[in-house]
Write a structure and sequence with these properties.
Chain lengths: 299, 299
């Protein structure tokens, strides 16, 4: 069997479940970030690595500034998902010898600008040649207060499901210029008990089932409430991905206060209740337009 | 200008010197590992990322077990250079869709075995497709006691220069199966004041000048004393690289005690004094066989 014939989630589950993790690891493979214990009893150490590859995550003709920005912001979006504070980043650049030095300098400018936006220090860089396309891997290290860290696993049946911003259409331009929702996520965990959270990188249709599965619950989405980006249709919002918005679960008891405080704090950023978590035992098939069967979830 | 026309050291120096590092960064770009401050006042946080690429660091026909081993051991060798303790690792796999799942499973077995050897927990994995060759990036996080961390910068004129093991011929097989000198490095800093240290990945001819430059000193090598691997000649030892042995500088006052204790502790591993650091102001050209001009260093 080849990689293209097996789901990435399934393979990674299989590969990583065999590993013995050690007792200092609180959240490991499968969550947005790895969370580990250190001698600092108040905080957890947070680690994340991610990569972008030419032809997969950006077109070879893309502006190198934007490529660098995206390469840095992708792992930072996982920090947002965990409500963690990023501090240090390492860059690994894999590029063919024919790559122009000027392109690499622009790439680093993009990486550096993105890092500065969140006060992240770039503390190391490695380079390797390749016979293939350019790839940039960025590793980020930071921390989260023990009582503010959020994973995918705490969602409860009955929880409201919220998303920030608007979904769909990100592939046109936004995916190269998005700002991870770190400020919003930090504000949320300072002011509200967030049960479960993730960032939307593969599209609601792929990501929401992951959040529900990790929390051991079902879900119901109110399709008519999905906050669509300008020009986007429901299927763009569900299937395209690269939105890098937050999806989170919170008790409906907080709903009124959340809406009120959010509007005051982030008047320009939409916050939308898109549905709720449900008991896994009820067969909560979605009433979805046909064609979205991959989005359905047997109870 | 293209990447192939500019030295990696020079380009990285240029790119990374522009970055503002923040006051928590003690050792950043250019050293073997990044060292940063945390709330733990006794220890420093140590971070390193490195990658291996098919066709560059291994042949596409290499045993995937060995590829995984090497991918993990390369950043761990940088931990040895810093005398740091590795704890957590993240894997990023970039591979074409045609890659066999079985190959990836063997790769992960190699990564996992290498990690276990040093009690490192693999806490996360990412995957991306590519139209090019397989690449594996490994990021490692750990710690070093503030009073035991070693950089490339502490060497003094008059210091003895030592290397562990034997040099040359590593490209035949050793580069896929080497064991980073973490145990030896930890023992060294527990028992001796090591002034400067690095791991030899690019060959003594490229690496020793880096160590000397970072320490602001010159050097003199006794070529006849170089510990050669079986079948290797002096130019293999100098130019080939991939030895992953330690090169370190220590006061000659420690020489007798170092040799005596080393033989007792590591009876099977050679330790060789190969020369010394000298004042930078004396024009200490090497008496080297012609052809090694890249190994000479003007004072």
């Amino acid at each position: 069997m080849k990689l293209r014939d097996i789901g990435e989630d399934r393979l990674l589950d299989r590969l990583l479940s065999r590993l013995s993790l050690g007792k200092k690891v609180l959240d490991g493979p499968g969550d947005d970030c790895a969370l580990v214990e250190t001698r600092d009893h108040q905080n957890l150490l947070v680690i994340k690595a991610d990569c972008v590859v030419a032809g997969v995550h950006f077109l070879p003709t893309a502006n190198a500034l934007h490529v660098g920005w995206k390469a840095m912001m992708r792992p930072l979006s996982d920090f947002a998902a965990t409500s963690a504070v990023p501090q240090f980043a390492l860059i690994t650049l894999i590029a063919p010898g024919k790559t122009k030095v000027e392109w690499v300098e622009r790439l680093y400018r993009g990486l550096s600008r993105a890092a500065k936006r969140f006060k992240v220090s770039i503390v190391g860089g490695e380079m390797s040649g390749t016979a293939g396309p350019v790839a940039i891997s960025v590793s980020v290290v930071g921390f989260v207060e023990r009582n503010r860290c959020v994973s995918r696993r705490g969602g409860k049946a009955g929880d409201d499901l919220f998303v920030t911003g608007r979904l769909g259409g990100a592939l046109k331009q936004k995916h190269l210029q998005f700002v991870p929702r770190i400020v919003e996520s930090r504000w949320l965990t300072r002011n509200f008990p967030i049960h479960a959270m993730m960032d939307l990188s593969d599209g609601l249709g792929a990501d929401l089932p992951r959040l529900a599965k990790a929390s051991g619950v079902g879900f119901a989405i109110e399709m008519e409430n999905l906050p669509l980006a300008r020009g986007a249709k429901v299927d763009n919002a569900i299937s395209e991905g690269e939105d890098y918005e937050l999806l989170f679960a919170i008790s409906p008891r907080e709903r009124a206060r959340l809406f009120r405080s959010w509007k005051k704090k982030f008047p320009k950023l939409l916050l939308t209740r898109i549905g709720s978590f449900s008991r896994l035992s009820t067969r909560n098939y979605q009433l979805l337009p046909s064609g979205y069967t991959h989005f359905q979830q047997p109870g």
